[in-house]
Amino acid sequence: MSNLFSLIGNTPLIDLSDLSDNPAVQIFGKLEGQNPGGSVKDRAALSMILGAWERGDLDGKSIVEATSGNTGIAMAMIAAKLRIPITLVMPENSTPERVGTMRAYGAEVILTPAEKTIEYSRELAQRMEDSGEGYVQLNQFSNEDNWKAHYRTTGPEIWRDTDGEITHFVSSMGTTGTITGTGRYLKEQSDTVQIVGVQPTDGSSIPGIRRWSPEFLPKIYDDSVVNRKIDVSQDEAIKTMRILAREAGVFAGMSSGGSTAAALRLAEELDEGLIVCIICDRGDRYLSSGAY
């Protein structure tokens, strides 16, 4: 019998090699939608909340956090289990499925103007913490417990499940905790492993993937870990997301389409290799967006 927290992590790898035209390259997707909260963000949320809990930072306080969706859902789930009040701040163009899921867990949700993006949501969460009204911000963008979750779990799982044969790790870049923590661990095992980040092309809007302005670049991001960045368009991410569902039977979101698109493009360049890309979440959070 397992408790909620023990179900986070140890997600499976699924073989996606059939999607590539290069038979000399293996491609695996790490199915993070198998986490109980439905996304890779369960790992970071658990690490950040338990870290703050153990330090006493949450004593008599409510959590406030800016989110584009998955981190908020994960935090709401964990806060519900620990009976901690939580307020989540996010752009109003977030899908109703995401907002509804957070509220189902008991979270208060504040929606900010879509045109001001997640950067304004972050500013508002900071103002609420500074107000002296009992809010504490975990701040996934600068919280060391974010990337450490992936250093402790995601990286070791990938190394173990590929028998140390991984040559390339591909991850969409949002808060950058996944790529920083996983990349650091994999680099420590073998300095030949290539760490590849995925960003949106200029003008593209892909939930979970960001091209940050310099002043909002997450403090946890370690550019020295990343060997290369691949830009993916919104259309390419959506097209690949649909291919995942219709040809591989993997129902995932747009950021997963982005990371898989980058992995497929990378496979075309290689003579041989083993690529692991992050399948960030499940596709049911995107149905109302019309992407499917």
TrEMBL record:
Its cofactor is pyridoxal 5'-phosphate. It comes from the Bacteria. Pyridoxal 5'-phosphate binds at residues 70, 174-178, 255. Pfam families: PALP. The keyword Amino-acid biosynthesis applies. It catalyses: O-acetyl-L-serine + hydrogen sulfide = L-cysteine + acetate. Its EC number is 2.5.1.47. The modification N6-(pyridoxal phosphate)lysine is found at residue 41. The keyword Amino-acid biosynthesis applies. InterPro entries: Cys_synth, Cys_Synth/Cystath_Beta-Synth, CysM, P-phosphate_BS, TrpB-like_PALP, TrpB-like_PALP_sf. One of its GO terms (molecular function) is cysteine synthase activity. Residues 6-281 form the Tryptophan synthase beta chain-like PALP domain. Keywords: Amino-acid biosynthesis, Cysteine biosynthesis, Pyridoxal phosphate, Transferase. Pathway: Amino-acid biosynthesis; L-cysteine biosynthesis; L-cysteine from L-serine: step 2/2. GO terms for biological process: cysteine biosynthetic process from serine. Belongs to the cysteine synthase/cystathionine beta-synthase family. This is Cysteine synthase. The gene is cysM.
